[in-house]
Amino acid sequence: MNILFWIIVIVAVVLLVVGGVVEAVRFLLWVGIALVLIAVIAWAIRKISGNKR
What we know:
Layout: H1 2-49
């Protein structure tokens, strides 16, 4: 009974950690996509305006 309790606790903790990591990766993926879009837009504006800074 005691071993079953610890197995359940370990599985629950692992699932919580994995779920948190998946959510963090999903969030960072969207942040990365947004940053790439901003960088492309900034590059295009700089290229069109001819600013060499």
